[in-house]
Design goal:
This protein is about 25% helix and about 20% strand. It is an alpha+beta fold. The strands form two sheets. It has a four-stranded antiparallel β-sheet. This is Succinyl-diaminopimelate desuccinylase.
Length: about 170
């Protein structure tokens, strides 16, 4: 499923010298995203998680024996970059389960951020397009409203926060 998360604190952009009086919308966005997952990528939102059926764990273990370290060697990782989990043969099935049965968040688009020529301005808003992979047995509509509550309730600095629906895709 996907959605757009928009954070706004200002009616218009102002000089960055005013920072310290009002927080930048990107910093508030970071706080909101931290509600979704840990630094490790592990989802914090229990309503989006499901118990992985034991037969699917077994399938992942069997698949792990077949593909082995190809699970990560086929990724175009930059030099010393690593997967979310340690890249060991014992973890192959867990890496496979991360990419199939566990919720994962990706930021796939943005608006309100200037390019590198940007000046010293506190911008009025930041919008991110989020793509969330859900376990196969989680209803995307339920997931959307769960995330809407997660992001919009009790926003830092009483920012205006909106999470709007994107496309719900499935297999």
């Amino acid at each position: 499923m996907s959605g757009k998360l928009r954070v706004q604190l200002l009616k218009e952009g102002i000089h960055s010298g005013e920072s310290g009086k009002v927080r930048d919308s990107f910093h508030v966005m970071r706080s909101l995203l931290d509600r979704f997952d840990e630094d490790t990528g592990e989802c914090k939102v229990k309503e989006l998680m499901s118990k992985i059926p034991s037969n699917h764990v077994k399938y992942a273990q069997e698949m792990g024996k077949v593909v082995g370290k190809d699970v990560w060697t086929t990724l175009p990782l930059y030099e010393h970059a690593q997967c979310q989990l340690p890249m060991t043969l014992e973890n192959v099935h867990e890496i496979l389960l991360n990419s199939t049965w566990r919720p994962q968040l990706c930021i796939v688009g943005c608006d309100g951020l200037p390019d590198l020529k940007g000046g010293n301005v506190l911008r009025q808003f930041t919008t991110l397009k989020l793509s969330v992979r859900l376990p196969p047995d989680i209803d995307p509509e339920h997931a959307f409203y769960t995330l809407k509550r997660l992001f919009e309730s009790d926003p830092p600095f009483n920012a205006k926060v909106e999470f709007t629906k994107g496309i719900h895709t499935s297999f």
